[in-house]
Amino acid sequence: MTALARPMLALLALAAGAWLVHLVGRALPTWGSAIAWLGLAAPIAVGAARRRRLRCAAFREAYLAPEGALATRFRGRALTYVRAGVLGGILGLVLYAALVRLEDEAAWTVLVIGAPASAAVFALWRRALAGQLAARYLPEIAWRLTVVVVGLAMAAALVALAFHRPYPDVGDVDLERAIWHFVDQERARSAPAQLLLQLAGVKDGLRLWLAQQLMPQPGLSAAQALGWLIVLAEEAVFVWSYLSFLCPVLIGSTKHEERPDRAV
Amino acid sequence: MKSAPTVPFERPSRSWAAGLAVVAAAAGLLSLVRTVAPVDWHAPETEIVLGGIHYRAGADDLGWLETFTAQHFAAGGEAARALVVDEIDAKLDGLFDEAHARLPEFLDWYYSLRGEYSRIAMAALEAADLSEPGYLAARAAATLFPEQTWASRLAALERDAADRLAAHYAGVREAWRGEVERRLAPRRVPAPLAADAARPRLVLDDFLAETVQRERQAFGTRMSFGAAAAGVGAVAAPALARAAAVRGGRAAAARTAARGASRVGAAAASGAAVCAPGGPVAAACAVLAGAGAWLVTDWALLRLDERMHRENLERAFDDALRRFRAEVERELVASFDAAVAAHAAAVAGEISRSFVPARAGRPGQSAAAGNPHPEDGGP
């Protein structure tokens, strides 16, 4: 097994986990939904914490004396994990709702292909930048560039799919009915999960109603197309959450990279 | 200054086997994504439409709704029966009070010479098979219940009863609607943009419309009441005939026996006495005197008969009228009862049919499975 194939397979396993959430997310009891949410939030939190510690290590190495009090304070411990946990929890909820509600097979194809593609792009960036960047900061920069490249590609694909997806006509109905239409579609065995899905439905209803009130039909007009692109830009948030979910596999353990004597 | 650590490049796809494993894993996952449908969760809530307003009802609300609907309309049917009995009773009171008020008129005719000779003439025609039997009863029926009055009063009774029933059932429906709306008010939802095929749907507006339609069918047409359909003579005469036969027959027999002995002798004696010195006009005088004596005798006997038997005859007709009233009331109540019962059965059947989709929404009973809607929002 090569060094590249291993993270690719690991990312495919994570993508399969995300698909399992989509598969059974509506039928899970509350405790099952909580476990699924933790399964999504934990990798995001771990990835965020590792990246934060990498940045702290780079900051310490660049600006602080190794034995100074500030270096001890900037090791990035409790606060790092708290912030990562909060971020992971929030993005985990976003990801849970989005994965469960993602019915489009083409969109799932994008997610599945995006997982190994992230590993490939990450490896390419590391290879390309290895001679230019400090080894401690290389994974972070490679990850950021990977997010930009893969994230933009995935977001573009998802936006294109969303752009051509049929939507109900809510141009002639009031906001309450429009929102209710989307809320009403959401069903889940777990009441908290259903509430989460319904909140996502509220967001969809509000977004589509505003879009159809302001821009009655998507057309060839550049302004209208731009408006729809803004409306559908939420796909970027979803892609960011998904890539954050994949992040810890690529970033790997950073403990050895935080210590200069064991740096790679 | 310490140099930055170098990162050895990990060459991608060094092994074809590893690459194939990645491709196979991705292809397998994509295949699963395309073939395996997510597990859907059908909410057991049923969509209820009442007065154009949409509600969502869970199993408890549905159970209550079906039970309440059945009990409410059954109680409405029972109340309708009591209401019909009251209405019929009140209307028949008026009709038969008038009949009782006309009874002296009939008895006056009965104890008049005109009545006497009419009965004798009709009896003779009846004996010669030139007339239908039961003249006295028919005459009593015609006097006590004038044909136009009888028909119009019965028609009014049917119409008023039907109107009261219609108002009653409208009240039953409104009370039902008010209670259901009060109970479901917290479950009100906006109207959906499109019907959800996977969700059980109970349109109570259709149920109410069907109930109204069945009510029109049950009470909109005239009752198949024999008394109203047939003339009064056909229904009242047989009931009055018994009274006429008991008292009239006995009185007539007594009078006939008395007349047999007295009329001829009295007429002959009168004729002989009055016209004895008459000469050529003696014969005519004797006939006139005899006829006069005949009439006077009849009149005297009628007065005697009236004095002796009028009260008994009046009592007999009173009893006959009471029996006839009970018979008419029984037939009318039975007729309306049948309509009310048929309507109640139709409503019960409609409740049973209407609540089929609602029952499908309860736990343990599967709802029709549906596919996700294409218009469902994405992430």
Written overview of the protein:
The complex is a heterodimer of chains A (264) and B (379). Chain A has 264 residues and is mostly helical. Chain A has one domain (5-262). Chain A has 11 helices and no strands. Chain A has helices at 5-24, 30-63, 69-73, 78-101, 105-129, 138-163, 175-185, 191-214, 222-231, 234-251, 255-258. In chain A, helix 2 packs across helix 4 (78-101) and helix 7 packs antiparallel against helix 8. The longest helix of chain A has 34 residues, at 30-63. Chain A is globular, with a radius of gyration of 21 Å. Chain B is mainly alpha-helical. Chain B has one domain (46-360). Chain B contains 10 helices and 4 strands. In chain B, helix 2 (59-110) packs antiparallel against helix 9. Chain B is rod-shaped, with a radius of gyration of 44 Å. Chain B starts with 15 loop residues before the first helix and ends in a 19-residue tail after the last helix. At the A-B interface, helix 1, helix 4, helix 5, helix 7 and helix 8 of A face helix 1 of B.
Overview in brief:
The complex is a heterodimer of chains A (264) and B (379). Chain A is an all-alpha fold and 264 residues long. Chain A has helices at 5-24, 30-63, 69-73, 78-101, 105-129, 138-163, 175-185, 191-214, 222-231, 234-251, 255-258.
